Amino acid sequence: MNAAARAVCVAAIAAALGACGRGEHAATPSQAEDTSVVLMPVAADPTVSFSVSFAVGSQDDPPGKEGLAFLTGQMLADAATEKRSLDEILEALYPLASAYDVRVDRERTTLTGRTHRDNTAKFFELYSDAFLRPAFTAADFERVKSDAINDLERTLRYSSDEDLGKAALEDFVFRGTRYAHPSEGTVQGLRAITLDDVRDFYRSRFTAATALPAVGGGYDDRTVAGLGAAVRELPRGTASAPPAIAPAPLAGRDALLIAKPGADSSISFGFPVDVHRGERDFYALWIANSWLGEHRNQSSHLFNVIRERRGLNYGDYSYIEAFPEGGHRSMPPVNVPRREQLFQIWIRTLPNDKAVFALRAALRELASLVDRGLTSEQFELTRGFLKKYSLHFAETASARLGYAVDDRFYGLTGDGHLARFRKMLDELTLDDVNAAIKRHLQYANLKIAVVTGDADGLRAALVSGAPTPITYDSPKPAAITDEDREIAAFPLRIEAERVTVVPVDQAFER
Amino acid sequence: MTNTPSSTALSRIWTLLLACAISTPSARTLAQEAHDVNGIIPFPTTTRTLANGLEVIVMPMPSEGLVTFWSIVRTGSRDEYEPGRSGFAHFFEHMMFRGTERYPAERYLEAMVGIGANMNAYTTDDHTAYHVSMAKEDLEKVIELESDRFENLSYSESGFQTEAGAVYGEYRKSRTDPHFALDEALVATAFEKHTYGHTTMGFERDVAAMPTMYAYSRSFFARYYRPENTVLFVVGDVDPARVLPLLERYYGGWKRGYVTPEIPVEPEQKGERRLDVAYDGQTLPIIWVAYKMPAFAPSDRTRVAAELLAELAFGETSEIYRRLVLDEQVVEYVDAGADDSRDPKLFEIEARVKDPAKIDYVLGVLDATISAARDSPPDAARLAGLKQRLKYGFVMGLQTPDAVASRLAHFIALSGDLEGVRTLYATYAQLSPEDVQHAAQSYLVAARRTIGVLRARQ
User: Fold this and answer.
1) Crossing angle, helix B139-152 and helix B240-251, to 10 degrees?
2) A185: which of A189, A238, A263, B25 fits an S-S bond (Cβ 3.0–4.6 Å)?
3) Are residues A27 and A132 in the same domain?
């Protein structure tokens, strides 16, 4: 889809703010439903949301062909089918104000779409053709491949240092595993992919055995049956075991500096955490993480320490699950389920001469959380906040549908993830949360990724460990300047041989 | 001295000022109306103007207990007419989170966190919006908090200077985007006098100087953050009969005092302008062609037709899209838009070119497309398809209270009410292919355009 078409679809997905459990009672599933299809009825919704999630992701890219899943996904969502050329598809979708789009992540490729229920039949024909009858034309392939390479070479490397820093951290932590490269692939990987590779990958991977169909909103029985039948038209196939993702154990602190001339500093750091949706510790850790760094929210403690009190940057947050497009969304995404997750802290862009101070501030707050846990007051405040804030995660049918699909990935039956979360907010105690912090969080062993215009200076500062005092344009209260002295001298413990500098033009090259 | 909303409320009796019919339809009725794409705003609205000039609009819709509360200030970067003040409307948006005597920033935040509110704000050329989404039982608390900060904002000079650092940080994170660089340069070339000549973020030199502007910030608040320059928009699981008295109670004491900004008038452009922008990084070249356009005028058929012209001539089903994006693959994308604005602004066409050697070729195809749009009307069937798309697109965007409010806030800011958007969609329905051609003939005139080309610096 082009930018305008994408906008419709992205709006559908971005506005799809999760499945809070509200509204799941809005309609009763019919007896005629196809039990193979995940359902999320919302009777009052005048639209119908579709999703087919394939158990195929960038982790399945063959070595040397990183980007194969991504290009295959694009060839379903942004290319011709056997029945229609892409311009004919766009022409047909146009009056419906509808679109379908694909998200390719590490574990899953998900084709989503949404239309007004007046137009369900017309839309469904186009949508189902996209995954059943892709044409795989050479012209489409050339276009999506060229766009993908440009996206890595120009957009990721040069247009958003924050996204680059986050991608660099994932690559750094998961190096040596199939989780390392961006879901879009690598420059050389994309260049090596042929149209035949895409055809073969589609035939072998996009099968009924790997597909999970889902429909939500104001659908009818016929739509459910149609989607179930469409998926059964795919080759039966078999579901293969995903590759093992076992990042090397961290020992100490390592830093990766992406040297980009003229850049300010954008910092991400973290480590793997072995805790998942459905597990009691996951929800305990969620409370702790919300207090430390709730995404794009002023309640974030890191936000308050680094931005609100000191004005160093635009925001500072932490995560226990993958959160792509963090600069462009306020609520958690759907369709990015992963077996392996990172705990990570995101320090938004700031001047190079303040980067080490900000890094130290974040490390110090993480250390304090690990060593002392939450106080009773912090725990109660955060628990109260999340009980209502989580209502915003899933305001739309398409978001609820996304959560329901992700629940399948995590093996959650009965209560879904957000329903469990609500129960856990009532059940969990301060001791539970602080015990989970002790079990899963630490600050000794980290990987740090920084996009910076001063790699040499930053490297020297990180390795020397010398204090990095800070000055302000305005007077600050003694409480802040006293704390600043502690932050400025907070131990970095990064050895010279553990700092790697990579020129930006080499990032994600292969 | 702080005049607390609650004490004001105690001395005030609710009176109906400009009354519209209050309706409290059932959820079932609302759901049925929501399915009707022919009524462009499918939810009932109740509008009042308080004695102090504050406009309030309440719009019930099915939302399962969620409500969104928007404060739309009809001031944006357009109002930054004084030299050295570019970016100030956006900066001031940040300052609105710095608290009052009654609710210092920490207490304000604590209260919002306590109710799990999802809150944020943004600034555009023409308006600044503050939005809070919450469970319906917390609406009164939000009204209390919001009315307090709009009436009684209070912050120290050091707090002001600290926030200036955060705003500079926002500038830093944005400036790596080549579109930002081109936009900044293009509007500065296209507008010689009018404040649309700077972006909402402002010039970097002005952003850097913001810590010195504390006294000015108080003047900015006093002049623009006034009831007669603000619209409150409440959407979701609400009953107008209960909400309106609350709004009167908490906002009734807010004093008038809006001072109209002295925004200069842009002289007529009488010759084509061109600029080249060098980008410090790797990027494909970006072409941006911008024609001068009249301001938002929802009943002006030609002005409204320009929006459809953008879609028909340059959208994803256009001939140029098929040719340049799909067949020849010489551009990554081509797109156009005739943005609605309070003052005359731009009809913009943008394309990202894959091969720098093809820039002139693409400019030539753009010119040929413009000539064709001027020479003949679009196909009637395509126009009908676009009208249908506009209706469905609008209705499909009305999913949640926040989505409804964010979609309509723009129009409220332009016209001060919802009549503008209603008129706009009524005008869409009436447009003929000849109206679209007339828009091309009227606005796509070479002497009134600016062409910008951004390339990676060699």
Assistant:
1) 30
2) A189
3) yes
Q: Residue A327 and residue B173: Cβ atoms within 8 Å?
A: yes
Weakest-pLDDT range from A200-209, A226-235, B33-42, B197-206: B33-42
CA dihedral sign, ordered B39, B44, B49, B55: negative
In a domain, B261, yes or no: no
- How far is residue B99's CA from residue A303's CA, in Å, rounded to a whole number? 17
Inter-chain Cβ pairs, chain A and chain B, closer than 8 A: 226
Nearest to B164 among A96, A139, A311 (CB): A311
In this structure, are B186 and B329 located in the same domain?
no
**CA–CA distance, B408 with B404 (Å, rounded to integer):** 6
A189: in domain:
yes
pTM of the model: 0.88
Q: Into how many domains does chain B fold?
A: 2
Q: Span A381-388, mean pLDDT?
A: 94
Residue A96 touches partner B, C-beta closer than 8 Å: yes
CA distances from B146 to A413, B130, B253 (A): 42, 9, 13
- Domain carrying residue A426: 253-374+411-506
Q: Identify which of A154, A387, A472 has the shortest CB distance to residue B116.
A: A387
Q: Tell whether B380 lies on the interface with A, counting CB pairs under 8 A.
A: no
Chain A touched by B156 (CB under 8 Å): no
ipTM of the complex: 0.86
Q: What pLDDT shows up at residue A252?
A: 97
pLDDT digits (tens, 9 = 90+) for A288-331: 999 999 999 988 999 999 998 998 998 999 999 999 999 889 99
Q: Report which DSSP code applies to B153.
A: B
Q: Does B454 touch chain A (CB under 8 A)?
A: no
